[in-house]
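Hi! If you just cloned this repository, the fastest way to understand the data is to look at a raw example. We've pasted two of them here, unedited. The first protein comes first, obviously.
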Amino acid sequence: MNYELTTKPHYHVLDGLRGVAALMVLIYHIFECFDYTPVPHGNLAVDFFFVLSGFVIGYAYDDRWQKGLTTGQFIRRRLIRLHPMVVIGVLLGVGAFFLAGSVKWDGTHVATELVMLAMLCALFMIPIAPGAQTDVRGFTEMFPLNGPCWSLFFEYIGNLLYALLLRRLPTKVLAVIASVCGVILTASALQRGYVDQGWSMAEGGFWGGLVRMLFPYTIGMLIARCFKPIKAKNVFWKCSAVILIIGAMPTIGSDESIWMNGLFCALCIVVVFPCIVWIGASERENKPKQVHLCRLLGDISYPLYAIHYPFMYLFYAYIGFHGDPVAISKFSEVWPAALALLIGCPVLAYLLFHFYDKPVRKRLNEGTKGR
């Protein structure tokens, strides 16, 4: 049997929830430069993405290896799914960097050849070490031209681990790996007071990011293997509300009890997000309006995540953000620019999905048939 011809039911609710989480990331980044944000825990949406990715990969591919799927075919399919938007995001990042004056956060001018080297690293998903000349913003980001590429970098690592190892493991062994990663992630969160490693290689950020990806990714795979739907109604709205409430939750505890905030973050990742994915996959009602909304949110979710941050760099330059938070009182002066981002980025994501990402992936998939 040709594995390409098999079809499976589509989880529209999960598509919609991914879109809600992507919009929350956008809001989080718009307010990231201010000393107040309506979504202090909006960055946890990335961890929700990782749970979703593990579930979708396990659901879509676990039974295809026995039907002829090869490692090379899997890797090609994942590259075709992810990399076209990586390319656009990086190119937008280069354009934004030049428009902002080709300078680091401290105002130091950066030579064009270093920007081009940083671009090549980003296009080939090669992370940049802190202090390297290609760290063109001087902020120790793995991918200084488009910061969120860090999570796509770990997504690629997760895909490779799945193809080479994780898919072969018995469910009990996979559960042990997930449990160990969950314990490490929780211990790190309790110590640091938050979960935000991975975007930089400084201070052990690579290993922190690896664990941050591995736990939700493997727990998502376990859900795909063990999934049995439960009775659930109006799941999209209820789960969306939970995601937004998590994002809006204020930081818990003081400097002396910051572990409390870490515990909150760990509980969200270890318990709440897997439950949301399980419940979200359980609703099979096909209400036309809800399906249409979820499909729309799902369509823009990945393009939005991949392309929004270069515009954040321009926004930060516009309001004078150089690493130290700007007083929220200034928001009254720059709210039109913030609103333009809130509306413009999703619109651009929609256009890119329909007129670039979807056609390019279709063309590339046609080119790989028969291989």
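Ok, and the second one:
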Amino acid sequence: MSADRAQAYETKLDAIVGRYRELSDLMASASGEAYARLAKEFSDLETVVEQIERWRAAREELASLEQMLADSGLDAEMRALAEAEQAELAERLPALEQAVMVALLPKDEADDKSAILEIRAGTGGEEAALFAGDLYRMYERYAELHGWRFEPISVSDTGLGGLKEVIVSINGQGVFARLKYEAGVHRVQRVPATEGSGRIHTSAATVAVLPEAEEVDVRIEDKDLRIDVYRSSGPGGQSVNTTDSAVRITHLPSGLVVTQQDEKSQHKNKAKAMKILRARLYDLQRAELDAERAQSRRGQVGSGDRSERIRTYNFPQGRCTDHRINLTLYKLEKVLNGEALDEIIDALIADDQAARLSEAS
């Protein structure tokens, strides 16, 4: 980094630290909405400032050690200690600087949000539906391990143990930040229970992950909605409700249609359908913005392209391979139990950060 760029970088860091301290003072006399707005900005800057101060403290300590070592009168024992500390700090410094640069990367505004997770069986018939059920249980267990609330909104099963489609609300801090990397086509290779010849079949399921939108994120006008109510039905059209409790909501400007019939109450079905519609509209808006921002970018790990085959779960070999980063783990059972899923997601996040740092440099 040139001297001019280094100076500009230091000035930028000073401004961030200065704003953080200013916010701390402003919050002391603020209340209501003003306090909430300041507290949000303060919280967003907190991690960045912590990383800046950690890096600067290490840098100052290293400079102090170098000054000490320049003293020819330093005794041998103190010199040995100072040299050991110098070597350790010099090794740590690049990682500390990298942490600052990562903290400075633009943050996805949806990262802190909860998420709507949609899983749909793809090619492969009943075996694909069984695999969709496996993915459902994987995310349910993963949510449990993270202390998130996992709440099914809509479930369509095959009656044979598989899932044709399931929509789930997952609530917690930073859910979308981690689960957004799961969007895409998941492929399974295994011998189905119904396969007598032992032949390996390949099936697929599609996962969509949408940030859960609040009313302030997406404004939906009543005039833009057509709401139809009808009698809900079970498998094969068998009536399961004698009242018109099922709801179909059509958003006229976008053409998006959401149906909901899992609840016996029309009011509850409408509320769930609106929750899904709001998330899909927010996702649509974000996709349009991302397309504009990423015109010059060839590809990104977290793009959420649902036509992209992102991962293969190979049962005969006990492996799980994420094709975006060529990562293979031979611990398939732990991945499907949700225990090893963080290893994949952490690697995807690191790869995404490295790509964005490269673009920023």
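That's it. A detail worth noticing about the second one: The helical segments are 3-27, 32-69, 76-104, 125-146, 175-179, 266-293, 332-336, 341-360.
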